[in-house]
Known about the structure:
Helices cover 43% and strands 18% of the residues. With 278 residues, it is α/β, with parallel strands linked by helices. The protein has 2 domains: 2-74, Chemotaxis Receptor Methyltransferase Cher, domain 1; 86-276, Vaccinia Virus protein VP39 (Rossmann fold), CATH 3.40.50.150. It has a 7-stranded mixed sheet with strand order 6-2-1-7-8-10-9. Strands 3-5-4 form a 3-stranded antiparallel sheet. Strand 7, helix 11 (228-241) and strand 8 form a beta-alpha-beta unit. Helix 2 runs antiparallel to helix 4 (66-74) and helix 5 crosses helix 6 (118-133). The protein is globular and about 65 Å long. The N and C termini lie far apart (54 Å). The model has no long low-confidence stretch (mean pLDDT 95). Bound molecules: S-adenosylmethionine. S-adenosylmethionine binds next to loops.
Amino acid sequence: MSMTKNIAPEDYRKFKGFLEKACGITLGEGKQYLIVSRLTKLLRNEGVSSVSELLTAIELGQPQYLRDFVIDAMTTNETSWFRDRSPFEALATDVFPLWDKEKKRQCKIWSAACSSGQEPYTISIALSEYKAITTVTTLNSASIIATDISASMLQEAKQAEYDENIVGRGISSKRKQQFFKQNGGRWIVADDIRKRVSFKEQNLLSSYDSLGKFDIIFCRNVLIYFAAERKTDILNRMARALNPGGFLFLGASETVMGYSDAFEMKRSASGVYYRLKD
Ligand SMILES: C[S@@+](CC[C@H](N)C(=O)[O-])C[C@H]1O[C@@H](n2cnc3c(N)ncnc32)[C@H](O)[C@@H]1O
């Protein structure tokens, strides 16, 4: 698809506008190469020969799936188990014990851009590990809702089956034996880890009302792609989706500072997380 190498400025502007409105992702100036590298194969398969042709096809819904395929191709799905370690250490050392001290009801957790499932399953493993060292905990019945904009990522996540090299990105051999079952060269997440997690398609730009209220939200490594006003909107709506005293975890290079004043910053031994202000 040689034409995308010469995307007309007007087509680039329109494509940026489409992407921002559809999923919040802002392409900076001079990122035409991202369109080329991520869409060339898709456009070739669809017989679409220019960005303006692509935008027209999306607008007409011909074919219907094109819009989702383009969003899928333009989003970054990079993830891993126990990513950055510190959020999961903070759950074990700070948040879960505090929860047990303060609360007496079911804990609801939201993994808000779950990609291929490593984040929600890691939270579930952290819950099992916490249960194993705690005699009395109300976290036995904790549940995790994992959402993403991408239907194909959710499909992978639900399958809960990973290659050796993918499991190797963050899972120790001890955890592998404990929390996975082996099936040839694949590793399947154990039933007791899976059963806490349910999956749902959710665009972070849309209303969260149908999801209900949460006690802990993980929204990691996705806000980084959004413009400031989107971050503010999402963080304030997440604050409203949290029960009083609820917790928020962001990615290592993300912050609420300058975007929302609904949260106070908390420091654990290993890093930073946020708590809803009273
Ligand atoms: C880099 S991954 C982060 C995965 C995981 N949270 C982590 O930290 O490892 C970003 C995910 O955000 C999803 N995403 C992008 N835009 C979104 C939107 N508007 N609504 C919901 N999910 C979105 C992508 O599909 C992708 O799976």
